[in-house]
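Lab notebook page, bench 4
Experiment: in silico fold of construct C2
Operator: M.H.
Input chain length: 136 residues
Purpose: comparison with the prior construct
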Amino acid sequence: MAGYEGILGKAKLLLTANIHDLLDRALNANKPAVFDEQINQLQGSLEKITVCLGESIGRERTLTREIAESKEDLAKIDGEIDRLLEVEEKERQRSTRPSRARQLSVELFVVAATVANPCEPVGDGSKLCFGEAAGV
């Protein structure tokens, strides 16, 4: 089997070499026509490259615009996040530290309750008295 493949391989090589030689002689005989065809092929390739270049420039501009839009959107979102964090921080501060107005209103309520009713009943039946009623 190895000899058979060797013979076919050699025949193929011989045919290919002869065909190449024949084509080379034909091309050399018609050099001006060959050059014209090669120039036509190169011009066609140049046109394809020009079209691809235009498409690539268009894609680049589109991507540049989309990147700029994404950066703007990111800046807006970042600003909104910062604003929400500030609001959350203010709310947290309000909930952990009562405002001065709230403290004053609690004190005023205690004073008003003391003035209105200086003695409060306690669960065991006795009374808890504030201020003068307590003898202070």
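Observations: The longest strand covers residues 119-121. Residues 31-96 form the longest helix (66 residues).
Next step: discuss at group meeting.
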